[in-house]
């Protein structure tokens, strides 16, 4: 199958094209430049693989959780392209995509964590299936690094910017073999997860795709900020 994948839920901007299991990607840490980069990158990757937009079978998108603006941008672009081409969308958890960055030797549960700002982190637990793809072991959660609920698991690895949030409070609660607080979600991993989801029949009509914000409020009042600082 042929997929275009878009992941912009964090500071990283990433676009990939997958053609029958072969994936090409562009990735850059580019805060506030996602809207500028995504479509030119998509066109360049399609040209590199010899595809036209109408050759695509589906559009894959990182549905969050992550930065509100980045999640909204990715969903909007994916829906717009899919509607124009009359193609479905495959929405994938950004935390699941991040979990793909866990060190390969890790043979146990993986925690994916994204710094949600405002003194909180997004987290979710995953185990690898027989094909090495992460499968959720619990719900996606939002909370303070020192108190967000965690499954009682023999963690093998933990990845993502949430490990460094709150002076590393989340990492201090884990007994994981491997930590990588610099890991970011990549569209190449999103494309692989989306291809598996497509095979399971999980593609959606563009208008049915919903973002996963987890947080209702995207800003705190000054009083709330003072309360969080203690």
From TrEMBL:
A GO-annotated cellular component: cytosol
In its UniProt record, a GO molecular function of this protein is: acyltransferase activity
Instruction: Enumerate the UniProt keywords alphabetically.
Output: Acyltransferase, Cytoplasm, Transferase, tRNA processing
Q: What is this protein called?
A: tRNA threonylcarbamoyladenosine biosynthesis protein TsaB
Protein's UniProt keywords contain Ion transport: no
Where does the record place the Gcp-like domain? Answer: 28-139
UniProt-listed GO biological process terms: tRNA threonylcarbamoyladenosine modification
**Presence of the UniProt keyword Cell division in the record:** no
A Pfam family of this chain: TsaD
Supply the CDD domains for this chain. Answer: ASKHA_NBD_TsaB (cd24032)
* Source organism, top-level taxon: Bacteria
Location comes to: Cytoplasm
Q: Which family does it belong to?
A: Belongs to the KAE1 / TsaD family. TsaB subfamily.
